[in-house]
Specification:
Layout: H1 9-23, H2 35-47, H3 61-72, H4 88-97, H5 99-116, E1 121-127, E2 132-137, H6 139-145, H7 158-161, H8 165-172, E3 176-179, E4 191-199, E5 206-215, H9 222-256, E6 265-270, E7 275-279, H10 311-317, E8 326-332, E9 335-343, H11 352-368, H12 375-388, E10 395-399, H13 406-417, E11 425-429, H14 438-443, E12 444-445, E13 458-459, H15 461-464, E14 469-473, H16 483-492, E15 494-496, E16 503-505, E17 509-514, H17 518-523, H18 529-535, E18 539-541, H19 551-567, E19 573-574, H20 576-584, H21 590-604, E20 609-610, H22 617-626, H23 645-659, H24 664-671, H25 675-684
């Protein structure tokens, strides 16, 4: 491996200053890194079984988790380079496929290219698969990067080369750095890298990564800030490109469809088949498009545009629930770049009966999105439905652990509260807003209200949510000094923009959610009691997944079929042992963790069947531990003759467990009861899983 000469400190500091200015509020903690300790931890990790789940000393949890994925994914820890495609046709295909991303990144890369010369650093752009499609920077570093295939055509996702700035940023979806010995493969441990994902402004999907790499001496905490700022600039350029294309497609539609009536429903899709404009979209079979506050369904994928662009092929490409529309191809510069879907209007019926029927339909659809049959969950859904149908309840508190699906309940309230199709649903995560910006985000500001204020002023989220529902997630993160102003808005139903004495009336239903115990926060003085009692007059507790019993299996089946349908594959088949392990697992990440697991299994499964060994170690190990019989002889579980019905039933369950070696499916079949009933009986009689 070649070693680079030390980077120019003046230029490195200039990059750090540029990053700090570009990101504004992004602050990184001081990095505590010990090279020798990290190497010892890596060597110790490799000497253990790959399924080891203990955290090695001196290694960040983010890095350890990535090492674990790398080891269990079969990555060679002694690898010295990434896979590289040098086929000219394949490179040309990558360039064409990522033309929009490359175009959006061109300005940022051009402005940074000169700054990087002499710093020992290089800036690379990768697509959603982690394949490099562009690289700029210090010439010597670019040359040395080819020693490890850090160049165009190199594949740097975790499945290819283990822990690294590009692949791990793709996996986590967050800006990260991987420094020196933190890399999984030995051949790249002399490098440092910081990567940030780039998301499509239209649908939020990760479409690439921007990464700053070089030999380890170039490491600065600000490297992550630099790539995060660059990613945001690229996303801004993408948004501008998409807005321009949206305008041109609308113009193309207007010129090609003179018979279009304003009352007709209209959806414009781009060249990827995603809705970029929606107006008067009808109900019925297109209801799944109706979930946006400004334009229902914008960003949704609806169809695959055929290469030919003929009317017949376009009609055949439409999904079944959109076949009632009229479709028109839209061409720009002679190429098919989108299509217009027109839904002829129908006479409107103005009656309260129709309004209530539509509200009930929206409510039923939103309730159907909450998958589960457990008593605690259904009770929470019932309370949310009652709140949605009540005009007297203006605020609601939703409590529950992270990942339980609190936003679905907020959307349920919105669905049942609708008075018109365009009633907004505005969501804000209080944990993602800096302390200084809370007032501006909540209440808005006028021009020049403070340094950095918008030139034209800006409405707050209360104004944006007027007539609809405002969802404040992580309400416990709201700064104490802002809480009185929020209480005032809720009480007086008016909002004052910062710097403006004028009161603006707002009609907003507030849905606050938190994973904290707000009663304890009130007792600790971190949350105002008057605000707590104002927003918590009606509260809902969304139960964690571990308390929902067989809902785990229902959710697995739900996500399994949905993911398979999107991918055009058959659903996965789970063995009884795998299902038992999934039921036994406590799901600390709740529904979000379960969904991520199903997505991962669809990606990594070698066949259509999921066995116990296909599950992550922390889940499979629970099943192995719980299936151990606490006796060398099953008959040792048999007790003395019983004298009551309950004792007999308890003994029958124990005998069946012993006879079937703890297989719950076979135990339920032997006893002639359902698996949910068996689980209830196990809890009722206090039969520990250790019997299994």
């Amino acid at each position: 491996m070649k070693h680079a000469s030390g980077p120019n400190p003046m230029k490195t500091d200039a990059l750090a200053t540029h990053a700090s200015m570009a990101t504004g509020q992004l602050v990184l903690d001081k990095i505590d890194y010990d090279e020798r300790a990290t190497m010892r931890a890596w060597e110790s990790f490799l000497s253990d079984e790959p399924t080891s789940i203990r955290d090695p000393v001196h290694v960040r949890s983010l890095i350890h988790d990535s090492w674990y994925r790398s080891a269990t994914g079969g990555i060679n820890a002694q690898g010295i380079e990434a896979p590289l495609s040098s086929d000219r046709n394949e490179i040309e295909y990558l360039t064409r496929a990522n033309a929009e991303l490359l175009s959006a990144a061109r300005r940022s890369f051009a402005s940074l290219g000169q700054l990087l010369e002499g710093t020992g650093a290089m800036l690379v752009l990768a697509d959603s698969d982690g394949v490099l499609i562009d690289a700029i920077g210090d010439k010597k570093t670019l040359h040395d990067g080819m020693d490890i295939h850090l160049g165009i055509g190199g594949k740097w996702n975790e499945d290819a080369v283990g822990t690294n700035g590009i692949g791990t940023a793709l996996w986590t979806g967050e800006p990260i750095f991987v420094h020196a010995a933190e890399h999984f493969c030995a051949g790249i441990k002399s490098w440092t890298c910081a990567g940030a994902p780039i998301r499509d402004p239209l649908d939020g999907k990760i479409i690439g990564v921007v990464d700053l790499s070089g030999y380890s001496p170039i490491f600065r905490p600000h490297n992550t800030a630099l790539v995060a700022a660059t990613a945001r600039q690229i996303e801004k350029a993408l948004a501008e490109q998409q807005q321009e294309q949206r305008t041109r497609l609308l113009e193309a539609f207007i010129s090609s469809a003179p018979s279009y009536r304003r009352k007709d429903g209209l959806v414009i899709v781009d060249h990827r088949g995603r809705a970029i404009f929606c107006n008067n979209v009808p109900n019925g079979d297109t209801t799944e498009m109706m979930d946006g506050p400004m334009e229902p369904g914008r960003g949704r994928w609806l169809m695959n545009l055929p290469a030919s662009g003929s009317d017949t092929d376009l009609v055949n490409a439409l999904p079944a629930h959109l076949r009632s529309c009229h479709v028109t191809p839209l061409k720009l510069d002679g190429d098919l770049r989108g299509a217009a879907l027109v839904f002829p209007s129908v006479p409107a019926v103005s009656s309260m009966t129709v309004i209530h029927r539509e509200v009930n339909k929206h409510l039923q659809i939103a309730a159907a999105m909450i998958v589960g049959e457990s008593e605690k969950l259904l009770a929470a859904v019932e309370v949310a439905s009652r709140v949605a149908g009540s005009n007297g309840v203006t605020s609601l508190l939703i409590e529950g652990e992270t990942g339980v699906g609190k936003e679905l309940f907020a959307r349920l309230v919105h669905a049942g509260s609708r008075r018109t199709e365009n009633d907004p649903f505005i969501a804000m995560n209080c944990g993602a807003i800096t302390k200084e910006l809370f007032g501006s985000e909540l209440f808005g500001h006028v021009a020049g209200a403070f340094t950095g204020a918008s030139r034209d002023g800006k409405p707050g989220i209360f104004e944006l949510a007027n007539g609809g529902v405002l969802s404040l997630d992580e309400i416990g993160e709201l700064p104490l000094e802002i809480q009185p102003f929020l209480l005032r808005v809720l009480e007086e139903r008016v909002v004052h923009r910062i710097g403006d004495p004028r009161a603006r009336p707002v009609d907003v239903r507030l849905v606050a959610s938190t994973n904290r115990d707000l009663k304890k926060e009130v007792a600790a003085g971190r949350f105002r009691s008057d605000l707590y009692y104002r927003i918590g007059a009606v509260s809902i507790h969304v139960p964690p997944l571990r308390e929902r019993g067989d809902d785990v299996l229902l959710l697995i089946e739900h996500f399994n079929r949905r993911i398979a349908k999107l991918a055009g594959n058959d659903p996965l088949e789970f063995s009884n042992e795998a299902r038992d392990a999934l039921l036994a697992y406590r799901w600390p990440g709740n529904v979000r963790e379960l969904k991520n697991l199903v997505e991962r299994l669809h990606i990594l499964a070698r066949g259509g069947a999921i066995e116990l060994q296909d599950l992550p170690g922390e889940i499979a190990m629970i099943d192995r531990n719980t299936t151990e019989v606490h006796s060398d002889h099953p008959t040792a579980m048999l007790e003395a003759p019983v004298c009551t019905f309950e004792d007999a039933e308890r003994q029958a369950i124990k005998n069946a467990l012993a006879a079937e070696s703890g297989n719950l499916s076979k135990v339920a079949l032997r006893l002639g009861i359902s698996r949910p009933t068996l689980y209830r009986k196990l809890g009722q009689y206090g039969i520990r899983r250790g019997f299994l």
